[in-house]
Design goal:
The complex is a heterodimer of chains A (539) and B (385). Chain A has 539 residues and is α+β, with helices and mostly antiparallel strands. Chain A has helices spanning 2-28, 68-78, 82-86, 90-93, 125-128, 153-156, 178-183, 190-197, 235-238, 264-267, 275-280, 286-290, 425-428, 431-442, 474-477, 500-538, and strands spanning 96-100, 104-108, 241-242, 245-246, 300-305, 320-322, 328-331, 335-340, 346-350, 354-356, 368-369, 371-373, 390-404, 409-410, 451-460. The chains are: A alpha+beta (539), B alpha+beta (385).
Chain lengths: 539, 385
Amino acid sequence: MKKLLVIILLMLLTSFLVFALKDISEEDQQPVDPPVKVNNYVYKADRNTNPRVDHSEFEILKQEFKSAHDVTAACLSCHNRTHLDVMGTSHWLWQRSEELKGKGVVPLGKRNILNNFCIGVSGSEATCTRCHIGYGYADKNFNFDEPTNIDCLVCHDNSGTYKKAKGGAGYPDESVDLNYVAQNIGTSTRANCGVCHFWGGGGNNVKHGDLEISMTEPTTEIDVHMGIDGEDMQCVECHTTERHQMAGKLYALSSENKNRATCEQCHTNTPHKDKLLNEHNLRVACQTCHIPVYAKVNSTKMWWDWSTAGRLDENGNQIHESDADGNHNYLSIKGNFVYDDHVIPEYYWFNGTANHQLITDKIDTVPVQMNTLYGSYKDKGTNGSGGVSKIWPVKVHRGKQIYDPVNKTLIQPKLWSKNVGDSAYWKDFDWNKAAAAGMKYLGLPYSGQYDFIETEMYWPLNHMVSKKEKSLTCVDCHTRHEGRLADLTDFYLPGRDRSAFLDGFGILVILGTLLGVIIHAVLRRILRKKCFFQNESIK
Amino acid sequence: MKKIYIYKGFERFWHWSQALIIGFLGLTGFEIHGSYKLFGFDHAVRWHSTAAWAFLILIVFAIFWHITTGEWRQYIPTTKLLKEQFMYYIGGIFQNAPHPTNKTVYNKFNPLQRMIYLGLKILVIPIMVLTGFLYLYFHYPKFGIELDGLHSVALFHTFGAYILLAFVIAHVYLTTVTGVKPLSSIKAMITGWEEMDEAEVKKVVEEEMEVALLDIKEKFKAGAEKSDFLDEALEGVEERLGVVKRDTKFRDAIRNSGAGYFCIGRDGLYKEVNETWLKLYKYKRDEIIGKHYRLSRNEEDFKELEATVQRVLQGETINHGEVKRICKDGSIGYHTLTLSPVLINEKIECFEGFIIDTTDKHLAEKELLKKQIRIEEKLKDRKNK
């Protein structure tokens, strides 16, 4: 018996030795707390933050500026080639040539693209170009070649006092002290970028979901990179900029897999100590696990139904209705909305290339896909597809918007005007007139009939990166029921997928074996006992 | 009941660590499959991989062991008694019928076991290892070889897991069937010592000896007198080990005796003779063993001897006077002999005896007789003269 025990002990010991060793090495691999090792990035603590230049000392910036153009001229008097850089950017041009699958290389950008928010800028430029880095972009005749049309201040104001006028075609508000602003300029901050990128679509966090006012001064709970209690990173630290060309792609407007700002540029593609996690990066974007939820503070718009717009009260006044959280859920000029916060992303394969429903494209799917993110499990980036497809978290914005049921195209309605009677929908509430005016402005046909059609638009998420403790865990996806990837069914996911037939067969085999064993044992007991007694009696 | 050592140290280590690892792989594997939550998916995945590596190392050692010890022969499938074994499990077992096959060191597995273990070794385990590796290393595009997906890999892997699970259930149950007591098979696998009844043990011992002797025989193929050599060696070993000591001395006395010894079966065929006998008859051992004793007599004498043999076979012991023998070369010799029956299991199976050569005496007497005759003749002649 003693020997027996020794043997059992020996076996257990050797077997567990393997696991013990493994466990020890795993403990070594516990990720150390920040600073995380990164490339191409200098930690805040190691940086010299003193400004290299004090613009308040320059005489030329102390003059009384008569117009905003004069400020630009003053800037260019020193930065005398910089306008050449700026005027080549998409921030300025609002378009660049991009290849669309099946459509070739087309000029693409805010100038001509449609979305399912405010639909498009055409015909309403004067209000939309409040977010253009220029002065005077009031219609399609804007002069993109005039250097003094550049608005340097909107991106470089560090005073926090600059703002553009509403409906002012990009000119600053009257209240702005141009001298003060000009003397307090510097590198773009979150506030500079946010003034447009947080407010796109006509309100805070309407569009992105992961970019909104709370990101101006976020905590690390909201965004681990930009959190003011952490590294306090600025947008431009990831969206690296070379001569005003900023890295980063927004697939609401872009379609090609180039010039993207990525996590890997600092974190490399093997950021984890753990091999198994690093392997996931081959087919899963960092964002998927590290942005478990978006719209963490303020709600984002999930649904916009234009078809209900135009309802006025009995006095002919516009109606504003809000939901319990204080978000609009009805506006006469825009229709119905649904807002949501702490939204769980939807997940799609994405290889870095996209397509867009152009205003000239025939509608062939319902809901209309405003932009299509390409990718699939099988797409490993081998046949020129862009990159390897990875699983991405996406905000999908759905809605209903105006289209031409005869010509089978989307419609660009004229929405904004200063004056009533200008065919602008937001003044006259007449869809037919707005549609006719908008399409005429673009030189495109309009049948005279309009209707509303469902649309979907995809916004890959990149911001509001959570702390590592809050990132997704295995079972968020590797689970049989209601996992995050429940709808991504074009591949076998361990822990989620199974063959019901095989499992049924397996369970049958196991139960069959068990049953067989039990029956055998019972029979043995009963029959043997009988035999035994018989033998006894014979003896 | 006797105990006999059947399972060697490594074998037991291999069996139990394999059982442990497969059990653990099953536990973690079915968690990964999504069947239940136990360790947490994360741990299940990591530990499953670790256990898989441990299993692989064990397999390498086990293969080495199987080859070097020749134990792989235990898995050569046979259809002999396969049906009987099966019928036993579904029939005989309920009626306390005897087990159709015996477990021995050189034949540990019954035909059914052989078949199933072989199936595990060359089919199920390889499939599990292969699909496991594909699962681990070829699901992401890293090595050029890529899988279109894990679907088929996972199916095979899961299928194998179900088969293994079913096997384990049946296997564990059947251990309670075959032993002397329900747990004795498991105990045997832990200690190496199997409990058996005496008849079985005897069989095992005999078989082991047989195998050992065959082994040695193989090694001395060249020697012409190998059987002598083996007999002597065996007797030497037996003596050293203290088995049949007395007997051996007695045998030696016979072997080296100046008298010729013979042993003849009921059938009249020579079973054994000693060196002196061979010398007297001028035969070599191979030439006489298995031959009839008719060879050693002429027609007349044979009939007489046959009559004597009949009496011996009835149980009589006879001290015979001088007889004439015919040697191999046809020459003639004389000897006296004794004949006594040999009892085996209380039955007379053969008879044995000694011969003492009297040829010289016989010739001398003959010569004396001749001389006497001559003298008498001469005396007669003288008288007549």
